[in-house]
Structure formats: C-alpha cells, structure tokens
Amino acid sequence: MQIINSCLIISCLIAGLANAQNRDISYMSSGGKLNPLQAIMDIRHYTLVLDVDIENKKIEGSNTIELVLSKNTDTLLFNLVYLLEVKKIKVNDKQVSFTHANDKIYIIGSSPFKVGKQIVKIEYGGEPPVAVKPPWTGGFTWTKDSSGNPWVAINCQKEGGGIYFPCKDHPSDEPNEGVDMFITVPENLVVAGPGLLKKVTNKKNKKTYHWKTNYTISNYCILFNIGKYKVVSKDYTTINGNVVPIQFYVLEEDFEHAQKLIELKERDSRVLEKYFGEYPWVKEKIGIAEVPNSGMEHQTMITFQNKFNYTKIGGHDYSANLFHEYAHEWWANKVTNKDWAHLWIQEGIATYSEALIYYELGGQAAYDEIIDGHKRGIKYKKPMVGGDEMSEDETYSGNDIYTKGSFFMHSLRYIIGDEIFLPTIKQLATDPKYTYDNFVTTSDVEQLFSSTTKQNLKPLFDFYTRTTDVLDISIKQTGFKKYIIKINNFFMPLPFEVTTNNVTNKVIIDKDGITVNSTLPPQVDAKGYYLKKIQLQ
C-alpha cells in the first residue's frame, strides 16, 4: 500500500478544523464499509490508561494497541475523534510520525510494518465530546448526584469507541485477548468498569482502578462510569453450577434500593439461562452500574436508571430497563452482529426475550399482550436489513429492529413449533460457531434454523428482514358457503389457524391457496402470529 498523499492529509486537516469550531460529532457513526487499511489488522488487546480530570472535564493518558497484521503495510489507521489531541505515538517502542485529522490517525512508517504482531502506543488527551442525548447520542455525561457528588457516564454505541480512545472502530473486530483499563479519579470516587477489578492503588489524593476483561469485548462496551458508589454483592450459582457474583455499583444515596434490585437480577438470570443457556461471563461478574441516563448493555457492567420504579407482571415486580439490557449479555455481547446491518439480531431477540419473561411471570395472557404491543409498534419505514457494510446510523435510524425483530421471532416460533424453535434459539446463544470471537449475520441465523427444521427458511427470513411487506391474504367467496383463501404475495407454504363454523384447524396454505366450507366468512390467523392484511372479497 502507498503512503497517503499530502493533498489528502491537507483536506482532512481542513475538515477537522472546521468541525472543531463547533465540537459537533453528530455525523459520527460506527461501522460502515471497512477501510482496507483496517481490514488487514486483527486487534488482540487494548491497554487503556487514563487520568480523568472531572473539574475540567478532560482526560489524559494513552492506549496501547496490540494487533496482528495479515499483510505488510506502510500505513496503520486508527479512529479517534478530532476533539482529542494525539501527542506521541510509538510502534514497537520506536517513535513514529502520524497525521490526526477527520477523526482518523494515520501512522506512517519509515519502512513497512511487517506481517505479524505490532504494538502501538498512542498518547493523547483533551476534552472528549459531551453527550447531548445519552445513550442514543454518545459522549461523556458530566453531572452530579442529588448529594452533589460528581457523577460521570460514558456512552458510545452510535459513534463508536473512537469518541474517547484510539481504536479500530468496526463491529467486525474486537480485542480477542480483552482489555486492561487503568482509570485514575479523585480518591473519594469509585470507577465501575468491565470485567474484574484487579487492583485499586492510591497516590496523591487519587485512586487508580485496574479493570481487566478475560473475554473479547466490543468497542462500545469498553468504557467506565464514575460515582460515589457503594458495591452491593451477592453470589449467584449459574445453571451449570458456576458461582459468579452479582455486583451492583449503586450511589450511596440509593443504597437502600440495592438489595431488591439484586433479587430481581437473580430472578431474571434464571429466566434468561432457561432459554439461552448459562450466563456468558462466568469468569467475571454480573455487574450493574447506576447511571444518570437510560441503561445500556455494557458487557459485565450493564447500566441502569429508572429511579427504582417497577411495573407488575402477574403480581411480580419487573423493570424493562433492567431486563432488556441484561438480555443483551447474550444478544449483543455474546452473540454479536458482524456488521451493523444485522443489528436486528441483537435488538430483536433481546426484545423478544422480554416476551419470554412476561410469559414466565404472567402466563400466556401476559405474553400475548406484550407481543401485541410489539406488533402495533412496527412502523414499516424500511427493512430491518438494508444491505451490507452499513453504519450504525444507517441501520438504527427509523428502523423496526426492536419490535419487528421480536415479532419475527414470534412468527418463526409458531411456524416451526416450540420443539424446534426453543432448542435452536438456545443453540444460537451457546454454540461456539456463533458466539464470543465469532460474529453472525442474518444468513448465519437463517441457515441454522433451516438446518434444524430441515426446510429452506430463506424466503421467510428475506420477507421479514429485507422487506417492509406484510402477508396479503384474500378471502373470496366462490359459492354457497364456499371460500378460497390465498396469499397473494406468496413466497413459501405457511401454517395458518383457520376458523370455520366455530372450529379452528391448523392448515398449510400453499401457492394455490385452500378452499373451505363455512357458514360465515372464515377467520385466518385470529391470534395474530403473522404480520398481515386481509381482504374479504
């Protein structure tokens, strides 16, 4: 590969300076087409060392990136928001020249960087972006709790980890050997982070918290929260007999609420393990951190904020915020989309998991109610899967990945039956082929279900995920008490519950439709297993 030319560098600098005048990052979106310079890099490990200056809303430190190159190259490329200043870079302990502009760091070698392992240390600092509407728009939230103590939260799913640390910012690559984070804060505050807390050291009225992950982790989960926290902990024995602590980093002022929340977490764990297998991060913890914004699925330290208000499901207390983000430990953190184009897998199945706990707590009526709510929430503005190599913004904005993704699971479950659906969804969540270091696409999910059902489900997956169509069903009277039921946009034979003369039968409707005898017009799919419109002719 050639060294980038000076014209490109100058244009990037100009763009960066223009943006810097208003500190705008609304244009940033993680993912998209993978740059060839980053396609040859396999990120293995990050070591993030930061001193957080809360008073001045600044960070200062470094990130050491361990990676493996698959090809020789004269340029390394990383992402870092233009608002932060890169001060020095070393590659394999040798200082190198670089250009930082337009949210990218180009490291240019005096000789090619060779195939194999490279260690890149980037020293940087400054004022990171401030979140405008967290967690949907990312950045730092610098605020205080009601007692006046500093309270800091970070969110970066939309924009990517590059809004505050140098990284390869693409969902298709995570640090396989995890992350070490050394975060320094004033001594009266606590840092809640991913993985395991290895050590806390004291120096000059400050404390440094060393958090370490033992697993691969996505960039938008590599973050921390700071507050006047107390840690409430209880051991939990998983479905496989492993003991893992539930740890709640709760503000001191809310300490009285901690025990109840941990009890709910324990209950929710039982439900999620029943359907999706053992909690994914047994070598670390089941973590929760109280934050000043709506919750997020940050790996082993999901965030929570609903003022400890609960709804009742079948007489049981329930928090949608707490449960949905926790479901993401399986669907997002363990089973991860390779490309944001397939975000429905994470969000849709996590949303469907809410229907499963509704069933566990309130029975079939509660399940039916939440599924009906998901169906009514579908907007049909654009397909759940709009292509490939899409950015987070392109997929997320205006999409039905939550509600339609959930309802798709409801339809699929009806079509193939519980005896296949439930074991297969658990297989998707537990098979190494689809988890941890291995990422998934819509095709992977379709091929798994097609394999377990021994039928071609691709037309069904394409219909639900790649179109905004609904089934167009016509019921036409063709004679005395005689009707033909057809699917006008037929794509594969499907089972339907058809009610005639007050009797309901499950039948297969193929491309030719079916003819039924009925005193009154027949009812088709009265319980609502499909997205459909019905024309009575």
Radius of gyration: 26 Å
**What ranges have pLDDT less than 50 throughout 5 or more consecutive residues?**
1-21
How large is the share of residues in beta strands?
25-35%
Strand order of the largest sheet: 5-4-8-2-1-11-14-13
End-to-end span in angstroms?
A: 65 Å
CATH class division of the largest domain: Mainly Beta
Could you give the count of β-strands? 28
CATH superfamily of the largest domain: tricorn interacting facor f3 domain
The CATH architecture of the largest domain would be: Sandwich
**Shape by Cα distribution:** globular
Structure notes:
There is one protein chain. The chain has 10 helices and 28 strands. It has helices spanning 6-20, 36-39, 258-276, 320-327, 343-376, 392-396, 403-416, 418-430, 442-453, 458-466, and strands spanning 41-53, 58-69, 73-79, 84-91, 94-95, 97-101, 104-113, 116-126, 139-144, 150-155, 179-186, 190-192, 196-203, 206-212, 225-227, 229-237, 243-251, 286-290, 302-304, 311-313, 316-318, 471-479, 482-487, 494-500, 503-509, 514-517, 523-524, 532-536. The strands form 8 sheets. It has an 8-stranded mixed beta sheet. 44% of the residues are buried. The protein has 3 domains: 6-227, Immunoglobulin-like (Sandwich); 340-466, Neutral Protease, domain 2 (Orthogonal Bundle); 471-536, Sandwich (Immunoglobulin-like). The chain has 537 residues and is an alpha+beta fold.
